[in-house]
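Ticket reopened. Same input as before:
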Amino acid sequence: MGEVFTAAVLVAVVASAIRLAVPLLLASLGETFGQRSGVLNLGVDGIMLLGAFAGYYAVLKTGNVWLGLLAGAIVGLFLGLASSFIAVTLKAEQGISGIGVYLFGLGMSDLLFQKLVGTPIPINTFPKVDIPILSDIPYLGPMFFQHSTVVYLAFAAIPVSTFIINRTTFGMNIRAVGEYPEAADTLGVSVAGTRWAAETIGGTLAGIAGGVLAISLGIFQQNLTNGAGFIAIALVYFGAFTPLGIMWGALLFGAINALVLELKTLEIIPRDLSNLAAMAPAIITILALAVVARRIRAPAALTKPFTRGH
Amino acid sequence: MTDRSSPILEMKGITKRFPGVLANDNVDFDVYPGEVHTLLGENGAGKSTLVKILYGLYPADEGEVLIDGEVVSLDSPTDAIEHGVGMIHQHFMLVPTLTVAENVSLGLKSSRGALTDLKAVSERILELSNEYGLDLDPSAVVWQLSVGERQRVEIIKALYRDARLLILDEPTAVLTPQEVDQLFVTLRKLTDDGRGLIFISHKLHEVLALSTRITVLRRGAVTGQIPVEGATRESLANMMVGRAVKLTPDKLPAEPGEIALKVQDLIVMGDRGVIAVDGLNLSVRRGEILGIAGVSGNGQRELAETIAGLRQSESGTIEVAGIDVTGARPRKIRDAGLAYVPEERMREGAIGDFTVWENLLLIDYSSPEYLRSGFFKFGAIKEHSQDLVDTFDIRTPSLETSCGSLSGGNIQKVIMARELSSSPTVLVASQPTRGVDIGAAEYIHRRLIDTRNELTDAEFIHAKLIEHRNACTAILMISEDLDEIFGLSDRVAVIYEGKIMGIVDPETATREEVGLMMAGITTTNA
Ligand SMILES: Nc1ncnc2c1ncn2[C@@H]1O[C@H](COP(=O)(O)OP(=O)(O)OP(=O)(O)O)[C@@H](O)[C@H]1O
Ligand SMILES: [Mg+2]
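Engineering reply: fixed in the latest deploy. New output:
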């Protein structure tokens, strides 16, 4: 046992924890925008799946990973618009409508994959970009500074999101309509418009998250996300609806995942238990989230459609 | 500021229907610069509806609105704000998690484009607050503010948008007398500037003190419009209700029985971790009303909540009908014979999303009368609810209407009906008529006194059958309204900083004496 946790193993686990955290982080940041505005989108996983397929397919056809990301983003954008229409304009029950979006994404992504691709063909993945000087630091370099550009961008999105939510009028409107839409409405803030925008950002980020997932793995398969979208939703609560909090949650999930993978590779977890072990990260994360989330106050108007005069 | 001889606002022939209710019936209403035009009317008379139409929150079914002599269409609050209309809502329209400056700047164009310009906004807020005597910290988060401070934020919000016509829907309902005085000083400054004010209140002395003109609504229609000169509380009350109203209820002398509620050396912490109730002692006997007078924030809320079992005490004991219920669960305290009408009617007293009948049933739902092997007996329930709706004159379109859509006074009647229907030994009523107008207020007072008498009768009839159920209700009434305190109480206890300053007889005590005690000054040895 002693020699299992060598420095090399530790470095590998941390580096892969960071990589694995990225799709969750992006999807979860997106969901934060929606939820802060009062809209719960349970369809994140479905959007991620379609974004993943779009990203995979675009890279398969063009070989360009950035076009792949763009494809994921566009698919996410449209599904975000569709989710907004359902939740905000049609005022659907958000606990149910999102499940519809999820099932649509799950089925549609598989159908398209079967029709357009059939057998899995590996694609290009994101190139690694070593940060000059920093990547040469022993231990820390390989952990933090030898990743692909999307990893750096995803972590940069955290302060950007915080800034948007706290320092811009758009962010202030989001917070207001998520907490007390009646008050925002009486001051002429468009509740529907703000929620549409926030929810569409959420969809777009979910689509990108799916694209990142597929392109990082270099492959697509049925139900590629394995429920990551649902964990992303739980992370929003865990992170107390703040981007920084969400980052810690995503890293926790990434770390548990990386550790389980590592233990499997080292055959510390017996082969016949490996299916069970594959579920462990999700289970552990959800349990941790459920315990922490009890203490966290959600936006007061979350899941409540708004109608003037009610 | 403007020509004062032509009206800022004219509303002509406004009609508004809600399912089953004619909320506004061909109403004409106007406001001139520099005047306070008051809307007066019983609960559900249509006051809020009229001003919400003006603020673009509801479309009118008929009629037109003119601002500065021109017909305008007010389809949203944005339109209203553009035409210089500001509104201070009956329920505060502030986002509790945002700061004062953020709340004020919501919906406005920022001078920094996409970024918020809270610095500039804060500076302007401070200017306005100096000019109008509205003390405020722009960086404070709203949920931490007192009710009075929140209201100042609302006024600043309107002034910031340079409202020339300001609507105040029951602005004083939640204020202490001192805060009301302060508010009126500010409002007079606003009219001096030539702004027009629409004022809604149930408190007749406030209406008389502030108004220039008064329009009275009854069941949606205008029943009178008079200048304040020559108006009296009685004349206004009569116009509102449509018959002569007695503002001070009649009551027979109390015949106090044994002690039903006994509070001893009670110490309770407040929300902010400071002592709210500080070694308080009191007892209420069956068949009497003990009024608790005091300025809000002196431990009244914590006292009531602790008696009802909604808050834990640090030390001391509470007995209901001789049973020690200190620290017991609310259900157990109810079983001991306590009924509770809370101060926060919408948050604690009723469930807004539930229907009227569900709210009426809330505490009795598991009684075999209404429940058979897990299923509601709808026949019995409907009958019981309809009974209560009739006896308490609850104005609701139907039993299935959600409670939250009723007017404030009717919600209170639902709560009173439910609490009194359980024939409690002790009733704790906090601010029973706050925000409720005199028509309805008169009714609620009558019930409080009736109950005492009815139960005195019940006691008389049942005395030989049930021995420990032979006494009448002990009522602890907490109120900031001295009219209510003097009109109803058999004894008046004054609370100050969590202690009872003294107990006086309302027949012999003066208001000045009680007022001084409310400020912590004792004249006699208490
Ligand atoms: N959104 C609504 N839907 C249905 N009915 C409504 C609605 N708003 C008000 N009403 C009804 O219209 C009538 C007038 O209500 P309104 O709120 O204008 O009365 P009010 O004079 O302001 O009363 P209060 O003094 O209790 O505030 C009431 O019968 C009320 O139940
Ligand atoms: Mg009203």
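Residues 9-241 of chain B form a domain with the Rossmann fold fold (CATH 3.40.50.300). Confidence is low (pLDDT under 50) at residues 449-471 of chain B. Please confirm and we'll close it.
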